[in-house]
Write a structure and sequence with these properties.
alpha/beta, Rossmann fold, 2 domains, seven-stranded mixed beta sheet, globular
């Protein structure tokens, strides 16, 4: 901390403002972690360049340029994220908003259940592999409303269903350490806390975190975001996130997955519940239907957000040594689980 930072912190102490002081120190810590992570990435890039230089035979300089360009692009992706949605202003009404949308989604889901008995899309079958603690076919499955563009667009259709599925698949042992990224007011972390997990929740919105602290005073709550998790390596047994991953660009999503890996133990697992497309064909079809039918809400959401492709996420995670499975709740909402093979 600089002299100016220390002076500011002492001023908060003199005024007896403990909460403001803690928030300020959390911000300083988050900045330092971001700098530390960036330094680690630079060291890794330098080491890879040294390894290339030590290879037998003539050095292909283009490989060094490619490596440097990749490092630069990822550094810019990490630095360019900002909260375009101003979640501080949404914190007071967040829980009411998600529950209202979830109620609408639940009614539609029930009405269509008789038409869609299979809750997974055909492409997801190849990713339906057993979790080490559960038979993949042995748990109850949520109802599904799929294969139609919604007449009204809600980001939080099947909200409670998605959170419960995440907790079911994670199935934490008592005392396991879990991290919820982009926790908002702590709804998912709160469910896992009730299941016996030792939960830490982070968010980039101070107001969301204040709501979370009020609801769950026993939970560890910190300021932070996907791209620079303010924790040491191998700190958690599992990482979860819900309705937040799509706020990242594709490059940022890759960085976020790498950060999750960094803070997980060797057997650590990942579970994401979010709006996702099954593959590029699903995305293109969805966009065409939205354009044809003039659904401005869908088009606006697609312009502002980056709903990931499930097949790409599964391929990347499997390339890192995970086995994956996912479940489809409605046309866009999916829950994805990744468990390491090793």
């Amino acid at each position: 901390m600089s002299l100016q930072d220390i002076t500011h912190a002492l001023g908060e102490i003199d005024q007896g403002n403990q909460q403001r002081l803690e928030e300020y120190l959390e911000l300083q810590q988050a900045v330092m972690y971001a700098q530390w992570i960036e330094l680690k990435r630079m060291m890794d890039t330098t080491q890879r360049m040294m390894d290339l230089n030590r290879q037998e035979g003539p050095l292909d300089v283009s490989h060094l340029h490619d490596l440097a360009d990749s490092a630069r692009r990822l550094r810019e992706a990490r630095q360019n994220w900002h909260d375009r949605w101003n979640y501080d202003t949404q914190a007071a009404l967040h829980d009411q908003r998600v529950q209202a949308a979830d109620s609408t989604g639940t009614r539609q889901s029930i009405s269509e259940e008789k038409h869609h008995s299979d809750i997974t899309s055909p492409i997801s079958d190849k990713h339906e592999v057993a979790h080490p603690h559960h038979n993949a076919g042995g748990h109850s499955t949520p109802s599904s409303s799929k294969d139609t563009v919604q007449s009204s667009f809600y980001l939080y259709h099947n909200y409670d269903e998605g959170l419960e599925q995440t907790a079911h698949w994670i199935s934490p042992a008592s005392g396991e350490k879990g991290l919820d990224i982009g926790t908002g007011t702590g709804n998912l972390a709160g469910i896992l806390l009730q299941h016996g997990a030792d939960m830490t929740a982070i968010d980039q919105s101070r107001e969301m975190l204040r709501r979370c602290r009020t609801k769950y005073p026993e939970m560890h709550v910190k300021l932070g975001n996907f791209l620079a998790l303010p924790f040491a390596d191998h700190s958690f047994d599992f990482v979860v996130s819900s309705f937040a991953f799509h706020h990242l660009s594709p490059d940022q999503q890759l960085l976020a997955l790498q950060e999750m890996q960094r803070v997980l133990t060797g057997r650590g697992r990942i579970c994401l519940t979010d709006l996702m497309f099954v593959d590029a064909a699903h995305r293109d079809s969805y966009i065409r239907q939205a354009e044809t039918t003039g659904h401005e809400e869908q088009l606006h959401a697609l312009h502002e957000r980056h709903f990931p492709l499930l097949d790409e996420l599964c391929s990347w995670l499997e390339g890192q040594g995970y086995v994956t499975k996912y479940l489809r709740h409605n046309e866009l909402l999916h829950t994805l689980l990744a468990v390491p093979l090793r």
